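User: Structure please.
Assistant: Input sequence and predicted structure:
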Amino acid sequence: MRKLKKGDNVVVITGRDKGKRGEVSRVVDADHVVVNGVNTAKRHTRPNPLKNQPGGIVTRELPIHVSNVAIWNPVTQKPDRVGFRTLEDGRKVRFYKSNGEIVGV
């Protein structure tokens, strides 16, 4: 089970986009995630008539390392860390370290 999943609200804690919040749009691998509106780059693309692509400047989000983002705790309104806990029924769930609430309930 991963600490960050698709759809989690995260905040960037270090780097060029420090302080920005966004939603995880995809998990690239175990160490990188793509966050909406964070770590964007502009790419100049040529038109490709075979693929019906227009040319121009395209803005896209690049992957960011998971150590540079922290999950956003809506209760405390602060970035938080994630831990794992096994419930009585055997399910493994994520929880916020600061207040012990389960993530995504």
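The chain has a mean pLDDT of 93.
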